[in-house]
Amino acid sequence: MESKALGGDPEVSFTFNVTLAYGAPSCFARPIVLVNGMFEPAVYIHQGDVLKITLVNNLPASYPGVSDGISIHYHGLHMGGPAAWFDGASYISLCPITAGSTYTYQFKVNDPPGTYLWHDHAAGFKGDGLQGPLIVRPRRAAPMPPAGLPPGAPAPSVPDLWQYDDEHIVFLSDWYHATMNSLMFRLNMPFDAAKVTNDSGSWNWIGNPQALLINGRGFYGDCPLFAPAGANPTPPVCAPTSFTVPPGRSAQQPWASNNNPGCTHERLVVQPGKRYRLRIIGASTLVYMTLCFEGHNVTLLAADAMPVAPVSTRCVDVNSGQRLDVLLTADQPPANYWIAVAPQYRVGSPAGYAVLSYEDPSTNATVTPAFPTTPAPQIAAMPPWSQEANEQVVMAPELLVPSNGSALAMYRREGQPTLAPPKSADKLVVVNLTQPLLENGQLRWALGNVAMPKTPPCSPLMNQLRRDPAYLTMAAVPASTVNGTGAGPNVGIGSAGPSRSTPLYLSGVSPAPLYPSVGLNIVQLEGGQVVDVILNNRPANENNGDYRPNGATRNATEQHPFHLHGHRFWVLGRGTGSFSPELHGASLNTANPPLRDTVTVAASGWAYLRFRADNPGVWPFHCHILPHIFMGQQATSRQPLSPEKMYNFAPYTKSWLRAKWGLSGWELPPLF
Ligand code: C2O
Fold first, then answer.
1. Which of the two residues, 520 and 473, has the higher pLDDT score?
2. Is 563 in the pocket of ligand 1 (CB under 6 A)?
3. What residues does the Plastocyanin-like domain cover (predicted)?
4. Is the minimum distance from the CB of 323 to ligand 1 under 6 angstroms?
5. Chain-wide mean pLDDT for the chain?
């Protein structure tokens, strides 16, 4: 609904009626979350509009996981001023909206036009479908671009980012056949390597997804695009249209409901000769994805809504939380071509497919046959697949440099004279990523050996800080005990544990905290400060205070897509190992670094970020992998930074688990 808001800004309002239903996006029926009866619907808005979303939680109160509530975060939008309260981060800016309740978000969209996403930011419902594309169009007052371009015209330059004939969304997600809350719930169980089986009731990793979806559609059973490393190097031959009938299900297709068409490959229809802007959105809960186009190169236009220098490529990499805008010209012989998405780093994960379908200009119908005649795995130019150790990305968004500066005027934030980063920083925060085992047997993902807990009962941190500014300083770690790597000034960290007495270290402390602990991981910043953040992706239990028995070590690391709320950051550099000022200092790009809101920290790698703390509020900074998180965070009365990963520490018994989730967590009680 569109109307005028106070002050004359156009106001666009939506009601999100959130319900639970059965659906089969992958051809496997399971409970899914719908908004107004739709699966992962898109929201379109113009820059300068006031967006008003009334979230109505109509999930059945008794359903497992529902008690965790829901909330909507507008990923990539930078709520400013009082709108900081509408950032949607549960436990930070608001309490989750519980079953039966309603909450209205209302804020002006100040961010540049581009591709964003909205998603649940409370518990696991994002992974059950409570997410979708969020598209910001240019200001309503902006002159309309000419309709289309003559065939053969050169690729559009930056100011013409929206000069294309039409557009398609390419929303990429990974899909599980158990609900995300039930899968993540099990991450809370005590870790016991000997008992890790589906029904042990012990700690259990969520495992690989059962399907990758493109625009909410896919097939359970789409086979992996690549053979596992070291095995048969020939790509598996599999028919993407065939699938495995899940046990207990009829082979009669589809299992889709009216609510969810599902169970088919998404079809992107193009007309010969026209140009399409593809809005690619990484909305996975876990996997890092590579998306490839059969028979077509695409030109990179923007990453995280920021224009980038054009690069032509067959494949792009998209991590959870990242967005890429690319231009695709339908200049090939009219036919059907595969669009394939494959996971990086994860052996045995399925692939996902969509069809790029040309219309036959003579009939206005899509060409037949409906599916490409070549098997999808023949898509060329995919790199060999490999696990963890090396980063087999094709076109990491973090490597794309901005397009030329002067054309970017419209992308500057108010009061920010330039898009180039400040030449130096006021603060340095070093964050070592580890996966310690706590004394109570719980495995945690931690920042600086400190994992973040959920804070029940909910009292949003922002509220707490507003009411009691001393909250931070009372438990502050003296700067003298907190050293960076020597690359900059001491890290000034304000911190508070749950009881205000648990010390918390975010990073580079000397000595490192011997045993992993739990804390809020708050970094206090002053408005206007320039902050450097070094993320070092360290071996799982490097800090050796890990409670693993008999000094057992775990060296594995995995990639983490880090997202900062309320700000963009410059990615000054990335590399392997840990950041060293001597080795890597000179290589940092301070001239024209990528400006992003999400960055991949490679397995066993580092990333060096810089941002200006110019948006008062309490802003989460976290890994965007849902099972790693459940969001950890906190920040300051003035500024951001907060960490990753937290979880609820209630002691659950096996019988309680069974009563609530069934034996395995896969057996869910009936919906209605
Ligand atoms: Cu898209 Cu805090 O996340």
1. 520
2. yes
3. 24-140, 167-359, 519-632
4. no
5. 70
